[in-house]
């Protein structure tokens, strides 16, 4: 397992830097923001992605199922005198707001690939968006080298092996349990991610079904966050491959989407 997954303060700061350099400018390029703009992140974790939005003076909200992550988010923001409202909740049980309390920007970063019923999930998100609001979604394509999140393995060998999450379910489970000797909780999480996988084509089918229109799509060959993680320069996927269904998934380490209500 990578050390940064254990050091949550470092994870928070790394996420904040990537968000400031890539997520916030990408959103502002298509959707102007001001002091009254309301920003919601679903699955916010420690809140790193929201830090640059809070520093810019926007009204910031974060929700996450993990209570410990919300506690950390409140702690990190408090130490930096940043304002943000954080709540621990299952988003699917979170009540839809009134029209006056809807959001200008909703952020869904590295979350959709963990959701089994993507159609119901994105349908619920729509209820939180202003009529002119925008939804920013980022996720790793399932077939990319580490689309199975196997980097969370505690076995340092298997955490670095690409594509082995694409093995048949039974063989994948056997390797995790008998060869890598992972803990039951880790195996359960990795098998759950395999069940919830999100190829590009599956995601675009979902957003079409819920009447969201694509304002922008960027497929990354080198994920912008890899600059913080590995010192690599971000690079977009070349256009010919980005338009080839299925094949593009193997080369896309992150998918950026900006979506609006039709």
Describe this structure in words.
With 262 residues, this protein is of the alpha/beta class. It folds into two domains: 1-142 and 198-261, Vaccinia Virus protein VP39 (Rossmann fold), CATH 3.40.50.150; 150-196, no CATH class. It is 37% helix and 21% strand. The protein has helices at 3-6, 8-30, 51-55, 67-79, 118-126, 169-179, 184-196, 200-209, 226-230, 239-242; strands at residues 38-42, 59-64, 85-88, 103-109, 129-139, 212-222, 235-236, 254-261. The radius of gyration is 18 Å and the shape is globular. The termini are far apart. It comes from Prevotella amnii DNF00058.
Concise summary:
The chain is an alpha/beta fold. The chain contains 10 helices and 8 strands.
Please name the CATH architecture of the largest domain: 3-Layer(aba) Sandwich
Please write the string of helix (H) and strand (E) elements. HHEHEHEEHEHHHEHEHE
Instruction: Report on the biggest sheet.
Output: 8 strands, mixed
Helix/sheet category:
alpha/beta
Q: Which blocks of ≥5 consecutive residues have pLDDT under 50?
A: none
Identify the overall geometry. Answer: globular
Q: What is the helix fraction of residues, given as a range? A: 25-40%
Q: Give Rg in angstroms.
A: 18 Å
Determine the number of helices (DSSP H or I, runs of at least 4 residues): 10
Q: Which whole number gives the mean pLDDT?
A: 95
Number of domains: 2
- The neighbouring-strand order within the major sheet is 3-2-1-4-5-8-6-7
* CATH topology label of the largest domain: Rossmann fold
* Span of the ends, CA to CA: 42 Å
How many runs of DSSP E, i.e. beta strands?
8
Strand content: 15-25%
CATH superfamily of the largest domain: Vaccinia Virus protein VP39
CATH class of the largest domain: Alpha Beta
Protein name: SAM-dependent methyltransferase
Keywords: Methyltransferase, Transferase
Pfam families: Methyltransf_31
InterPro entries: Methyltranfer_dom, SAM-dependent_MTases_sf
């Amino acid at each position: 397992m990578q050390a940064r997954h254990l050091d949550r303060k470092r994870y928070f700061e790394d996420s904040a830097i990537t968000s400031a350099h890539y997520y916030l400018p990408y959103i502002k390029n298509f959707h102007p923001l001001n002091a009254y703009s309301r920003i919601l992140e679903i699955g916010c974790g420690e809140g790193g992605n929201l830090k640059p939005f809070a520093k810019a003076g926007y009204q910031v909200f974060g929700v996450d199922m993990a209570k410990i992550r919300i506690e950390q988010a409140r702690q990190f923001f408090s130490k930096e005198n940043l304002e943000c409202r954080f709540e621990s909740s299952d988003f699917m049980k979170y009540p839809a707001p009134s029209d006056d309390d809807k959001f200008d920007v909703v952020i869904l970063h590295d979350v959709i690939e963990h959701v089994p019923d993507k159609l119901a999930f994105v349908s619920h998100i729509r209820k939180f968006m202003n009529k002119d609001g925008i939804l920013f979604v980022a996720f790793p394509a399932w077939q990319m080298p580490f689309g199975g999140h196997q980097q969370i393995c505690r076995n340092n060998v298997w955490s670095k092996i690409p594509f082995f999450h694409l093995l048949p379910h039974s063989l994948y489970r056997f390797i995790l349990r008998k060869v890598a000797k992972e803990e039951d909780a880790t195996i359960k999480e990795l098998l759950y991610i395999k069940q919830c996988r999100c190829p590009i084509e599956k995601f675009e089918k979902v957003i079409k079904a819920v009447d969201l229109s694509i304002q922008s799509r960027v497929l990354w060959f080198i994920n912008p966050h890899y600059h913080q993680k590995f010192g690599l320069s971000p690079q977009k996927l070349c256009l010919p491959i980005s338009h080839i269904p299925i094949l593009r998934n193997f080369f896309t380490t992150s998918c950026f989407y900006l979506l609006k209500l039709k």
